[in-house]
Predict the structure.
Amino acid sequence: MGAGALFIAVFLACAVEAVEATTIVLAAGTARDWRSAGTGMFAALLVLAVITAALGPAVSALPLGALRLFVGALLLVFGLQWLRKAILRASGHKALHDEDAIYQAQVRAARSEPSRRTGLVPDLYGFTLSFKGVLLEGLEVVFIALTFGGNAHQIPLAALAAVCAVVVVALAGLALRAPLARVPENSMKFAVGVMLTAFGTFWGAEGAGAQWPGSDTALLVIVPAIALFALGMVALLRRLPASSAGAAAAPAVAEVR
Amino acid sequence: MTGRIRSFGAFVYDFVIGDDWWVAAGVAAGLAATYLLVHAAGVAAWWLVPLLLVALLPVSLWRAVRRR
């Protein structure tokens, strides 16, 4: 796998997660208290750094065959779930992921809760909302960076791509002080779903002992083939009448993946 | 305590399995079958996982559309 392809795959996947985490932190900061939201975000980043430091060497020490089988299976499951949602959204059978609507719903929910001070944190609700959002989205970032990096024997490059994605998105969110609604998140999720599924297919089969014709170059066929198949599914599903869920404008707040 | 264990279990299930357990079960079965074909029967079974995708994705989509 080329370094460029690895960087792009990890960057895109992590950027999607970072956009969602940024929306939650912005909602916590706007509706509650910026100091509490910031403390929650940094506490979650600290926990994520500890998890990465603990899991990184463990992932590197695993035998490559077992790692590829395990990671391939997980990536395939993740990828198919992303792709399934992306296809349903693109074909009108599921509401589009709308960061503005999610942000407004988070702000409304946050404003309705009473304030409670604990220790150094002025507002516990704002802290918890921000902490949970960053930790849950961050776990996916850590997982993607470690698995892609571990399989390609390029954990530092994958980590760099993940950090770049998080920093770029966080700076943009901080500068705008608004949800990053202009990021083409639904298209990015479609692309990430295709990539996760393609790499999961490649590594999963290789981990199970299969040899791909053409070795790594097989990915040059697998990625476009899965993209075309997914687009075909979108075209097919568009012929079916869209459901009421697809027509609904506001997505569920809890829907972050 | 039981509530926390249950909610952690629900989080892990949602994180790993997601909305459709058929996908996870199908992937596990497909990779196990690939392993057996390669190691027990000596078949070059690289084609099995792509074949599985072609079947699994439409089935999962159909289940999702039918549910809505």
In short: Chain A touches chain B at residues 69, 72-74, 76-78, 80-81, 83-85, 87-88, 93-94, 139, 197, 200-201, 204-205, 207-213, 218, 222, 225-226, 229-230, 233, 237, 240, 243-246, 257 (CB under 8 Å). Residues 3-240 of chain A form one domain. The radius of gyration of chain A is 19 Å.
